[in-house]
Target: ABC transporter ATP-binding protein
Amino acid sequence: MHPDRQPAWTPPAELKDQPRQVRRILRLFRPYRGRLAIVGLLVGASSLVSVATPFLLKEILDVALPQGRTGLLSLLALGMILSAVLTSVFGVLQTLISTTVGQRVMHDLRTAVYGRLQRMSLAFFTRTRTGEVQSRIANDIGGMQATVTSTATSLVSNLTSVVATVVAMIALDWRLTVVSLVLLPVFVWISRRVGNERKKITTQRQKQMAAMAATVTESLSVSGILLGRTMGRSDSLTASFAEESERLVDLEVRSNMAGRWRMAVVTIVMAAMPAVIYWAAGIALRFGGPEVSLGTLVAFVSLQQGLFRPAVGLLSTGVQIQTSLALFQRIFEYLDLPIDITERERPVRLDRIKGEVRFENVSFHYDNDSGPVLDGIDITVPAGSSLAIVGPTGAGKSTLGYLVPRLYDVTGGRVTLDGVDVRDLDFDTLARAVGVVSQETYLFHASVADNLRFAKPDATDEELQAAAKAAQIHDCIASLPDGYDTVVGERGHRFSGGEKQRLAIARTILRDPPVLILDEATSALDTRTEAAVQKAIDTLSANRTTLTIAHRLSTVRGADRIVVLDHGRVVEQGTHQELMDLDGRYAALVRRDAQTEPADRADELSRRAEPAN
Model:
């Protein structure tokens, strides 16, 4: 079974323990509790200062103006100006600190998700769309920016303001306070309903954004554009993207309009409260109730208006928190992914690696429901020798090779390097010990030099050139206008398949691993290019333990040992001549290869003979 043929990954069920999820979110802010404490102090000070203004206004209206005390009037007016200045300064400082903390939390989340994904096995990436992964890191974490940078501060600020304002209102007149707050429970209930509604829509919206990101990543890559153009599907892809975008438009509108009318009713009612207060005070006075001074009434309405902004803000913050829980849930799904391949608590580190590889009764399957991909494999590869692994498609050749660098872990038996189970080795030792050159060569959108130095960041220019010469690619690089500074393009599309393969070989030569895995490194190349790449491979393989997964059997005849796999089992093994004398599976594969190779060469010669347009 090929590594790509795996069941689709299903994310875990939705977290229903919301209090636990909230506690987990709060833990993200724990490293910054000192800064948050400063924000809390600033918020409290700002709330107290702003609440003092109506009391100063009351004194102006009830004492300073009626009694003509200009000195007191000047002092109270100065106090109101100072209150405004302090409130603004405190607001700027708390915004600076809270925004910094929020951005640090987002950085921590992005790094945690990326680090988690770096530790996932190859199986995860073969069953997960790249756009989905990118959307989790970019869209989901980016969508939480308002929550982690301002929501927490807004919650504390608004809550403090509401509490301080209500206390001040009670101090002025408790009866008017009761009138002002009688509808508050209804408002809280409305905000919770709106929050739950937006949370559901947000989950759907983020899934749709992930689907659209995956479509963009696949169809607008170089390979995607080539496929779309050559298949005449550009218009179809555009129409498909338009449908994805249309669904996103609908979800965005629903998300923004969810509960808008209900919240509008809350806003109207709270805006009308000053009129209600004036009316209540007038009615009370008309029917012999307690008299309320003009200063008290104006100060109370000022406080009530001051209560309006933080109260509405508090309700809106509750809605925003409910919405952001959906985003946090999607991030936590990735952070909770089980890591299949882990390092031992006390791993073994090898300073000197000889390169002996052994497969001891190795078996492997992708999940419990699938049949074995490998079963009962026993092979010893002495240090410095070469082993070729051949067999029909789906025999398990690539999977066997990928067990050595632990791209997968065995499900039975063990794989050893110099007698040590590879699962007991530390990751650094394994990375130094095993190099992989596959058919799918990956190059970054960077210069040739940067791509080569990915294997050895401190490599000198002389070392780069020596590796390129060994890989038969130096002359090609040197002929480019920018030489080693030439940008290779996305996935190296500025270079031919053979050139990319030789760049990958040069990169591996820089790494200088004692064990080399060659996964059908020449299967997609024409005969002429294959000869150049094979020469580079021969240079790379010298004095190394080499496992070659071969498609073209002409490239492995010189191997010290050849193993034939079929349905995950070793059916034959020996040298090329021994297996040909046996006249079994290997001999049949060689005869089939010999029949197809002349046809391939004829097609190649025909292509070369065609006149250039």
Observations:
- Confidence is low (pLDDT under 50) at residues 1-15, 599-613.
